[in-house]
Design a protein that fits this description.
The protein is α/β, with parallel strands linked by helices. It is 37% helix and 20% strand. The strands form three sheets. It has a five-stranded mixed sheet with strand order 3-2-1-4-7. A five-stranded mixed sheet has the order 10-9-8-11-12, sandwiched between helices. The protein starts with a strand and ends in a 6-residue tail after the last helix.
């Protein structure tokens, strides 16, 4: 068995995973980030001890997915914006205690690997995973191997610029895909349109407080036929499609697998996004079998855990 650990901002989730990506036991603890790096590492030890309780077998390997840039060779977190791990080597204590290899990966890369091994992209060798949440995360798999880049920071798909001089992104650039096609971008577009549509059903759904609007309420209003919500979703689908077309034109993978909270509304987005891809992609005259397919991810939060557990199997 392998152990996969997914480090989030508030929780550490972990599971025992077999070589086919099936979860056999799971647990979680508070990340306790306020306690610093030592508290987080103790959390890793705690979840491993819980998963291994009652077993005399050491895990084949342990993998940890971290929201940031990592150096798998040194076990060091190179950059993470929201956790006290910058410059910390976090794998040594686990390796020493459990006597097995310990791998480190970016959380979006781990999710990409999980979906490729056991989820919506199973059986494909060339996959791009896009997660649409508060930001946009991504992972690229080519020939079954993760594309990590020279510094480990590759596949930051959300930071391609789609509108020059556009909205300011959290990364400091202007007009990033993330600023328009993340859940945060969707909400910003919704609030802009609510301002010019005081009769929108979205106002009722958020109790008259624009700051209470969220993705679910936007799509609820859209399904109810609200005009401002329709304009919001159309604008969002256009921006999402631009980024996906860019990925297709650059990499032309077998599959793009779309996950994250926004993917729960894929029924509203699949049609307009696919129409834009069909119109804008470079090789639009290819035979059907050679077109990149865009599919919804299926593993949810388990993708990162499974991918982390099986980091060593990517080759």
């Amino acid at each position: 068995m392998y152990i996969g650990i997914d480090l989030g901002g508030t929780n550490i989730a972990a599971a025992l995973v077999d070589g086919d990506g099936r979860i056999h036991k799971r647990t979680s603890v508070s990340a306790n980030a306020s306690g610093g790096a030592i508290a987080i590492i103790h959390g890793f030890l705690e979840v491993c001890d819980t998963l291994l309780a009652g077993s005399n077998e050491a895990p084949v390997a342990i993998g940890i997915g971290v929201p940031g840039t990592v150096n798998d060779e040194t076990g060091e977190v190179v950059f993470t914006p929201n956790l006290p791990l910058l410059g910390i080597k976090i794998t040594g204590e686990l390796r020493e205690k459990y006597g097995c290899p310990v791998r480190l990966g970016n959380d979006a890369n781990c999710a990409a690997l999980g979906e490729t091994i056991a989820g919506g992209a199973k059986g494909s060798q060339d996959v791009v995973f896009v997660t649409l949440g508060t930001g946009i995360g991504g992972g690229v798999i080519i020939g079954g191997c993760l594309l990590t880049g020279v510094s480990g920071a590759a596949s930051e798909l959300g930071h391609q610029v789609i509108i020059e001089g556009g909205r300011k992104c959290g990364c400091g650039r202007m007009g990033c895909w993330e600023s328009y096609a993340s859940a945060t971008g969707l909400i910003r577009t919704a609030i802009e349109l609510m301002g010019s549509h005081p009769d929108s059903h979205m106002w009722e759904l958020c109790g008259g407080l624009a700051e209470k609007i969220n993705g679910s309420r936007v799509f609820d209003a859209y399904r109810a036929g609200d005009h401002a919500a329709k304009l919001t979703v159309e604008e969002y689908a256009k921006h999402l499609g631009v980024g996906l077309v860019n990925i297709i034109n650059i990499l032309e993978p077998e599959l793009i697998c779309v996950g994250g909270g926004i993917s729960n509304a894929w029924d509203c987005l699949a049609g307009p996004v696919q129409a834009m891809i069909d119109k804008e992609k470079y090789y639009r005259f290819a035979p059907d079998a050679q077109h990149t397919k865009v599919v919804k991810a299926v593993l949810g939060n388990d993708a990162g855990i499974i991918g982390a557990a099986l980091l060593g199997l990517e080759a």
